[in-house]
Amino acid sequence: MTNTPFWMLLAATGTALAVLLHIGCIAFGAPWYEFFGAGQRMVRLARAGRAEPAVITAAITLVLGIWTLYALSAAGWVRPLPGTRWVLLGIIGILGGRGLAGLIIGRVRPGYNGARFWYASSLTCLALAALYVAGTLTW
């Protein structure tokens, strides 16, 4: 870490916020899935009490939680984790790829999620990717 971990802490904060929002979707169910634009299929499954939305959301939450830990590790707030630089580069690639792909999908085939979900979630992914890039460059 060459200077203050400002950008990496912002990346960790943004990712932790995403974790909390996903936990909220699991805890509060269909209204939250609907509000955040998860798509009518997910909303219907949640309303029916099916496990799939919670399982899918929990898997995403787990990944985001691990990413938060790696960002905090790079910021020096938790102990060093193995392969931090490679993991950070992977996070950047996944978030950037998801962000760009989502913008294209939102334009050409929004599907049941609708364009709003694809654009909002894609811009969020791109913003997080930018924070991880800035944090990694100053690490």
Described by strand count, sense and barrel closure, the largest sheet is: none
> What portion of residues is helical?
over 70%
How many distinct folded domains? Answer: 1
Order of H and E elements: HHHHHH
What's the β-strand tally?
0
Distance between the ends: 4 Å
Which class do the helix and strand fractions yield? Answer: mainly alpha
Q: Give the low-confidence spans.
A: none
Please write out the topology.
Blueprint (H helix, E strand, L loop, with lengths): L5 H23 L1 H6 L4 H8 L4 H23 L9 H25 L5 H24 L2
Describe the model.
Keywords: Membrane, Transmembrane, Transmembrane helix. The chain crosses the membrane at residues 6-33, 54-78, 84-105, 117-135. This protein is mostly helical. The chain has one domain (6-137). The protein is built from 6 helices and no strands. It has helices spanning 6-28, 30-35, 40-47, 52-74, 84-108, 114-137. α4 packs across α5 (84-108) and α5 packs antiparallel against α6. The longest helix has 25 residues, at 84-108. The chain is globular and about 50 Å long.
Question: Which terms would index this structure?
Answer:
139 residues, mainly alpha, transmembrane helix, DUF3995 domain-containing protein, transmembrane
Summarize the structure.
It comes from Stenotrophomonas rhizophila. The protein is an all-alpha fold and 139 residues long.
